[in-house]
Amino acid sequence: MNKNGALPNDRVALDAYEVENLFPTWSYLPEKAPLRVVSAKGVRFTTEDGRERLDFSSCFVSHNIGHQDPRVIEAVTRQLNQLASFAPTFSTEPRALLAKLLELITPGDLTRSFISLGGTEANEAAIKIALQYTGRRRIISRYRTYHGDTAAAMGVSVGDFRSWPQETGAGEVTRVPQPYCYRCMFGQKYPECGMRCVKYIDEVIELEGGGEKFAAIIAEPVTGANGIIVPPKEYFPLLRELCDRRGILLIADEVMSGFGRTGKWFAMEHWDVVPDILSMSKGITSGYVPLGATIVRKHIGDHFKDHFFSHGATYAGHALGCAAALAVIPIYESDGLIENSRVLGAYLLDRARELQDRHPSIGDVRGLGLFVGLELVKNRETREPMLGVDFKIRRGSNPKTALAQRLAELGMMAVTANPSNVVALAPPLIVTKDEIDEGIAIMDEALAVTDAYVEN
Ligand SMILES: Cc1ncc(COP(=O)(O)O)c(C=O)c1O
User: Fold this and answer.
1) Can you give the pTM of this predicted structure?
2) Ligand 1: distance of its center to the CA of 119 in Å?
3) What topology does CATH give the domain 70-334?
4) pLDDT tens for residues 177-226?
5) Ligand 1 centroid to residue 254 C-alpha, Å
6) Cα 175 from Cα 192, distance rounded (Å)
């Protein structure tokens, strides 16, 4: 070794080392080490202090089938014993089988896949495929969205504080509002608005020189980190029509909304819309092994039969990730998890609305499937947001960190670390009615913290 020293040999030393030497994600350097997780099972996890806690976040909405399912562990172990990974210029059986399975579970003629290592990479591939297929440079993206942490994916993550310091880019990005009806950027009300937000995109395209200037529009079908924004039912059919008329590709970023999260395999199915390119990750392996995938419609895939496909990576199609996905994906069907998401998602939404009746800090409740958001406000009448969009890059405590802290004391994790005013409830899809009641009771108690910030 190049340096002297031994590995930290107790918890205190390890905590201290971590604080001094590890970068956290999307935050200032912490003063103390985060809770260390030692095990997890189903919808619960255990921290080093021996305390069992309820996971109402599915770890950033990824562990859809729940923690430590023995069927997945067995399949991944079997693959590891046989062949951990191999150069992507060769085939492996799990990679080839997964491509077929992805074709089977996705809608329409989505048929050709590129398999990567995560959600960001899935979007990176989606953007590059769109640029290469169309030969154009511009992408349309919508405010309040997150598509990932690399240059291109970050470049289209517009209106999210994470993109502010690093606009290194996806080439040229045209920014448009999304259908965030609670805070409509046009000051309109649905349905009287006549879907002004889609008409606006059409006008922008016209004024920027027409469809031939744009490669694609990228959109989260149900916006996740930036606020559980569920679009009106007309939105995606109209956007599909616009894209067809203008000759622009539609990229659906289903990294969070895919794999049963909203009560369908993919959220776009709620509106019978087939995107040209669909990116996925998270639920594809439910976090057992990192994996992402990008699947494209047949004619787009076929284009690359006589055009060079300019994308790749050493670990593309990694055998362990593919083996995990091959074990995880059938579980959604065999265990009825997508149906559970639909049925218990409706129950969770009802219970969340009861919270709104009791807590003045909740301005709006919305969701689809087991993907429910509570939007925090200072004042329900004026809808003044409890936090500005820049709250994460301001030092110190704020209502959401205070809520997260209270939830941790009470033994639960919800999605509180996202950049919006919304706290999301997204338990693993195996959750039961009793566990939802348990989570709602904890949230009920914890919301006293945010109620204290309400101004009348
Ligand atoms: C909609 C969406 N796209 C892309 C990503 C990036 O995925 P990853 O963190 O796996 O790179 C995320 C992450 O939360 C996401 O929510």
Assistant:
1) 0.97
2) 5
3) Aspartate Aminotransferase; domain 2 (3.40.640)
4) 999 999 999 999 999 999 999 999 999 999 999 999 999 999 999 999 99
5) 9
6) 24
